[in-house]
Amino acid sequence: MFAETRTYDLNGFNAVSAAEGIQVFVDVGEAFSVVAESDDVAQLDRLDLSVKQRVLVVQMESKLFTLRRKKGWKITVRISMPEMITANSSSGASLTVDDMEGSALELVASSGSKLQVARLSGDRLVVTSSSGSSIEGDAGSCETLKAVASSGAKIDLEGVECGKAEAIVSSGARAVVFADDAIEANASSGGTVVVHGAHTSIDINATSGGDVVFP
């Protein structure tokens, strides 16, 4: 079966929000382009793409949850954009980004979704993962990092070398961070923080089965 491809005339966004099990790939540094493909034309008809407050929202029509449960969404969206400062995945979506650079960057994943960024470079980086979701940054650097993981979620930023880092984990979540200058780590309720780097200043608090590890 041949895949159906559709192009969307959308621009003016610097953030992407992906939801509902859709697979999304983003190339940063190129002109605006949004292309969706699927071997199920009926699913493409139900794809809902819009730009709201400079965020490209990728989701399905909200009234069609029954179809999603029975079949699952089999849609891939490929996006090109000049810059990206916020990435958000939710509800089982998979969001893959090649590069994010800026003074302030934000990554958010929730509800079993997956967010992966090949390179991160910024002054301030805020990363939040919850409800069994995962966030991974392969490489890069930042001046300050705040990483928050809860409810079995995972954050892996070992390859992103930051000066100062604050990590807060709870409820079986896990965060791996790199801090060269200072680390403030709080782990509770079975959560684990793993700290790489020189971290010349250390402030840790582990309660209720939480753990802070320095490998």
From TrEMBL:
Superkingdom, natural source: Bacteria
InterPro entries: DUF2807 (IPR021255)
Residues of the Putative auto-transporter adhesin head GIN domain: 13-197
UniProt-recorded name of the protein: DUF2807 domain-containing protein
